[in-house]
Amino acid sequence: xxxxPSTMTTPNGRPAxxxxxxxxxxxxxVVGALTLLVAAACSIPAKSFVAASSSQxxxxxxxxxxxxSQxxxxxxxxxxxxxxxxSEAPQYPPQVEQARTSAENYLSFTAxxxxxxxxxxxxxxxxxxxxxxxxxAVDSLSVDWNEQAAKAAENYLSFTxxxxxxLKQQLSSSAGEGFTxxxxxxxxxxxxxxK
Length: 195
Hints:
Elements: H1 25-43, H2 46-54, H3 59-65, H4 78-88, H5 94-109, H6 114-122, H7 131-139, H8 145-159, H9 164-172, H10 181-189
Helix pairs in contact: 5-7, 6-7, 8-10, 9-10
């Protein structure tokens, strides 16, 4: 007498309502909070924590440790220390500082030419900074572009072979790395392809 799929019934013979799965709101809250934390952590440059902690002057700590019976007078050398600190580390607008951090991060894991790094920072596929901001950021860094060209040349040779002239062409091409002709010649000259 089975007429179809079996359904659950209550003791009084009525069909039972299927149990609703209760989504636990706290699980969704925890997942949402973790997502926000990860997103926030990824958007903050790591160097800003170091800069913030190292830029704190040491004099407030020493003043707090001074006995209360003596009048609190700032040491005479404090203005000189502050002046020396500010002259050593030039301040940049926030967007340029962010672009500088991104540029340093890029340079830490692969070789770039000046033009290639500016292109990466200002590209919508890259960081999306305005070109003038990317240029200011790259120009504010102390980068040995010849060394970068040598690293790029070694990178190319690690996965394919080039003639000396082909390697120079690849390094200096605007479609390639974008090094100057002199930088490309230096970089290629450091490899076995040109020796």
